[in-house]
Amino acid sequence: MSNYTFVLDTNKKPLEPIHPGEARLLLKQGKAAVFRLYPFTIILKEKVPEIPETLSLKIDPGSKTTGIALLQNNKVIFCAELTHRGQAIKASLESRRALRRSRRSRHTRYRQPRFLNRTKPKGWLAPGLQHRVETTLTWVKKLIRLAPISSISQELVKFDLQKMENPEIVGVEYQQGELLGYEVREYLLNKWDRKCSYCGVKNIPLQVEHIHPKAKGGTNRISNLCLACEKCNQQKGTQLIEQFLAKKPEVLKRVLAQAKKPLKDAAAVNATRWGLFNQLKATGLPINKGSGGLTKFNRARLNLPKSHWIDAACVGKIDELKLLTNKPLLIKATGHGTRQMCRTDKFGFPSRYVPRFKFVKGFQTGDVVKAAVTSGKKIGNYAGRVAVRSSGSFNISASELVQGISHKYCQIIHKKDGYSYGF
Question: For the chain, N or C: smaller number of CB within 10 Å?
């Protein structure tokens, strides 16, 4: 079941989304035209005076992926999963810092450091965290322009990082820490991908397992906990993990590395939740808050599978939920390129030239194009994201990369907007 189609009247007023079959009929009859490919939107050729039925937008913010769902009277008519690029931003900043440090150590010309003349404003977030807030807000505003949304619901998850590290912490031991807001078991389910840490089995009841057995001095710290199926848990018993996985060195290495995995994803959600909430309030629409526990309760009560967009649909108080779509639009933030004048190698030396102009033959890297090649070695039809070259011979990437497609065969179907799309 595909997402419903967004509809605008001739004055670009958002109307009630319609079934894809109705949209195809309107396009075939010439009463509408395609306005936007992702998300698919049509525009009517006449004005519609009626006031459309309002919808509710629900958001499940995450560190790596944010779930989005659009509901009409407890019916999910549109869903999407937005993948952030926070880690890519962090890596770019670290690379820039390393290049500047190397230039300073070589005593070559460099920009003087400016850390003494800048102060961080109140509510400042690191660039990678701010990106998560801004991309989510971008898509909220985009959907408001495409659909008659009357309210927004956001899940305000609060991970208790101290409780995760030390489950016995109580009272004044918190000092200035957060109060308990998300149980340790749910965090373990997310950390270990909801599967047995030892055999990888999924979709069965899992038990909390001590990596270093309590009988041999193990603690309840989150770094010493994992998930295991009943069979693996009983087989391990009070054995040391090195003894239990002696014949599986790859699994042993993975489990030990995963156990030491930092709580950065939980910290990212904690740091951005109120920033996103305040930005959503600025839209002027009523904002409803929902807890992570309530979301999980709704999903379990309705017997729905775990996914980001379903979590979004289960945010807040709901009595029932009907899924009119089960195929989310997969949105991945790719950025708008870089202003770097030339690329450098790992040592910071120039390695290749970057063209001054981004547009080549009317195309730019990131445009979604379709190409019908009628001659040469690459005869066929292609569609995907294009990477331009000054020569006019482009690369098109969809399920696989196709190189050397002439611009003469290419036609833009969706202009670059900093995101890539899929289903």
Answer: C
